[in-house]
Amino acid sequence: MGLTWMRSIWVSALLTMASLVFCGSADAAKNVVTAVGPGSNPVIASDARGDLFAVFETSSGTSSAKDVCFVTSGDGGRTWSAGTNISNTAHAASKPCIAVEGGGAIDVAWSDEAGGGNNSDIYFARSTDNGKSWSAPIDLARTKRGSTNPEIAIGPDNSIHVVWIDESQDITKPDVFYSWSKDGGKRFNPPQNISNTPGICSAPSIVVADTGAVHVAWLDTTSGKDHPDVFYRRSPHGAFAPANRINTRNISNSARISSHPVLALGRGERLYITWTDNSLRPDLSDVWCVVVGKNGKMTTPINVSYTSGIASNPAISADKEGRVAIAWSDSSYGSPHIFSRVSRDNLDDVSYVMDLSHGDDPNNRGDSSPCKDPSVIIAQGSAYVIWEQQGAPSSVINLTSLTLKDIGTGPSFDINLKSANGKRVAF
Hints:
- There is one protein chain.
- Strand 6 and strand 7 (106-112) form a beta hairpin.
- The longest helix has 16 residues, at 3-18.
- This protein is mainly beta.
- The strands form 9 sheets. A 4-stranded antiparallel β-sheet has the order 1-29-28-27, with no helix packed on it.
- The chain is built from 1 helix and 32 strands.
- It has a single domain, classed as Neuraminidase.
- It is globular.
């Protein structure tokens, strides 16, 4: 198992380490980091005008349980609105996700224990006035056991698509469940099990193409608990056919540990699948990415990070202009920082690795506040990256932006990182 994968990553590694030519870089030290507010697990989205929206977990002060907080910015993230509590229950709300419809309505889903007991359900709320008011939360899952880790996407007809992890059929082997709505969230189809594998499923991701095709990826231990892989399914429309070995594809097929798959759609219906894997270096995980064309043909995996640290929790965004932005948490300098690479041509050329959370100042590497869980969105020619910076008494949500036209790029195998002494080194 994984012979093709291993061959491809070793070819990638050799080309990576042999490449010494670069075509410019970004000055990450000029990036302004803005504090959005106290919280954790942030996710960012944007509308057609370029307004930014973010959701994250936060404590309301009236209860020890966390709520889902919504904020918005109309000036590129320089200032943010006061937070709005969307969940507002006495129980724990977690893992919020957000998407914006073509007409401007904002959709948010999260996991919530409001139903009572220890079993969480997936809740959904919608705003049609730019986040000023929200519909009453509705329970999408209503299943017998725990439902967690929702992800949401919008179709070209403003249909709303949600996936999550559900323990209904086997508490020891949760599956990926899916539901969708065509009427603005008033009614959702009954939840459908779209994974139905013998393994443990986790970390789902979903996107919907302009054609209406629904793409879903998740982590799955069917190949073995010691080396979970990234699985992928596609449906040409809202309803999925019953899952089987033919229509479920093992994307990573790695000999070691794959983790945290994330999807994005770019120009020409290109599907980007990003995840982390430690097959190249057992002690260090890297960020990998493949591109799947409309014909289903998949490119050779590209090692996006290949730094001296552990890469984790990747995030990706792409647009119809061919721009791609990838961010992740990286331990190259000890305490995790937020690193990023960007492309203006569908990942044919990419930038240097940039330290977004701490800039390129070599004297600023010793910050002990870990940064994690980045989320990224491309809007109006810029990439906006949001993340959690841990600290006491509470974590803080930070944001920075990159003007993509000002960032130099080079061949995708030219992976460079500024070392602690400020000298450029090629890996």
